[in-house]
Protein: EAL domain-containing protein
Amino acid sequence: QAKEALGGNIRVFEEHMLRDFDDRKALEHDLREALARNEFELLYQAQVDIKTLELRGLEALSRWNHPSRGIISPNLFIPLAEGMGLIGQLGKLVLESACKEAMRWKRPLKVSVNISPLQLLERGFAESVAKILHETGLPPKRLELEITETVLLEDRDGAVAVVSDLRSLGLTVALDDFGTGYSSLAILRDIPFDTLKLDKSFVRDIATNDLAATLVRLVVDIGSRLGKTVIVEGVETRAQHEKILQIGGLLSQGFLFARPARSEKLAFLRDDEQSAGLIEDFAH
Ligand code: C2E
Ligand code: MG
Ligand code: MG
Ligand code: MG
Structure:
């Protein structure tokens, strides 16, 4: 049932399922209602130290629980919201929920929230983040905002300025999906970010392909030399995990360690004494 809402496991309504124009119009109409009624839910996926399996933080991943279509993927509704000029409003809702939720956790873990380029570049974005931090009481150092390099294509100087403003609030900024865009090296130079998230497409073949492994090694090395925290995304198998251990990667996020799940399902967020902050489900 959709109740489990585990990311990746169940069928999620994706872009290619939008058959025609009428369908899109209908969905746009529903999205407005969804915002008013808040039909969105956040799942959380662990980011772990690949050696010790200690938790470093959790990434918040949005789902839209559509009353008749079921769970809709962010890959579909985020672009839809962007196109409708609603991403600022939706993004605020997401950020607010994530900060509130993180305040309920028994451990002072970091929460990472995805920010779309249009949202980041909206006037007053950094101020709105400061307001949410203030209102929820979440210490800024417990918040990481994930942005992608596509933001540079929109407005390079604007993006650099906002990122600097955000970091001066005391939060950290991650560069998401690194390696998939057009300006990888320029962005390393220009954007003052803290964390580099290597896209999952680079991890897929590392256990079987030397070239793929070398590329990951290089990026981990570049990130480390630049003083960034490097997170390797999309680790699904033991073989990939072994390889990353060899390579010397530090942090990782992937289905092998934990799938995105509802906050209340994550025991390590509830029971302070019992768990050492390790991923307990990871028992092979
Ligand atoms: P992302 O930020 O790169 O998030 C990681 C995506 O990879 C998530 O997909 C996650 O479920 C998936 N993933 C994690 N580990 C693995 C793995 O081992 N293998 C595979 N194949 N996939 C893995 P999800 O939740 O469907 O989100 C897709 C994208 O939607 C996110 O990619 C992010 O760009 C965007 N997104 C999600 N929530 C939000 C949001 O609240 N706001 C914005 N602006 N974008 C969001
Ligand atoms: Mg992300
Ligand atoms: Mg990513
Ligand atoms: Mg992505």
User: Anything to note?
Assistant: The longest strand covers residues 55-66. The beta strands are 40-49, 55-66, 70-72, 110-114, 143-148, 172-178, 195-198, 229-233, 251-253, 261-262. The radius of gyration is 19 Å.
